[in-house]
Design a protein that fits this description.
The chain has 149 residues and is α+β, with helices and mostly antiparallel strands. The chain has one domain: Gcn5-related N-acetyltransferase (GNAT) (Aminopeptidase, 3-Layer(aba) Sandwich), CATH 3.40.630.30. Helices cover 24% and strands 40% of the residues. The chain contains four helices and nine strands, in the order βββββαβαβαβαβ.
């Protein structure tokens, strides 16, 4: 469900958290990234951020269609999981996506657990190409999960 707050920002309502749209960026090859603040349900208390990357190309295969980050003091509450459930609905309803990719580094146990809780299929564990921006920032291996939505 989409509502508008007093600042005219799109708000997507979930059970535990809501997403408030921050901005969007157009990328290469007809891709677009939409950024959201993750807020506690029915509040404006920001607990993290997430984004939905619409489209698919070689870069997004390694980076994924969804990214998320939960502020340190709010970790351990499955807020990333709850945010991803909302992003799945946005991807399906607003962008006509029927599947998407989420990736995580093998040493990011919390993100790995989130990917498992979301009930995706682990496609493979890959070495990120050296010329990919993830590799350039030190993320050299990724688990790649696929989700049917």
């Amino acid at each position: 469900m989409k509502l508008f707050d007093m600042f005219k920002k799109e708000r997507y309502i979930g059970d535990r958290v809501d997403l408030i749209k921050s901005y969007e960026l157009e990328g290469e090859e007809d891709s677009i990234s939409i950024y959201y603040n993750i807020v506690l349900h029915d509040t404006n208390k920001v607990v993290g951020r997430c984004d939905l990357r619409v489209g698919m190309n070689w870069e997004l295969y390694y980076a994924g269609n969804i990214g998320y980050s939960i502020d340190l003091e709010y970790r351990g509450n499955k807020y990333a999981y709850s945010a991803c459930q909302i992003l799945f609905e946005i991807a399906k309803n607003d962008y006509n996506m029927d599947e998407l990719i989420i990736t995580c580094s093998p040493d990011n146990i919390a993100s790995y657990k989130t990917c498992l809780y979301l009930d995706g299929k682990l496609l493979e564990t890959v070495v990120v190409p050296e010329n990919h921006w993830l590799a350039m920032r030190g993320e050299t291996v990724k688990h790649i999960f696929k989700y049917k939505i």
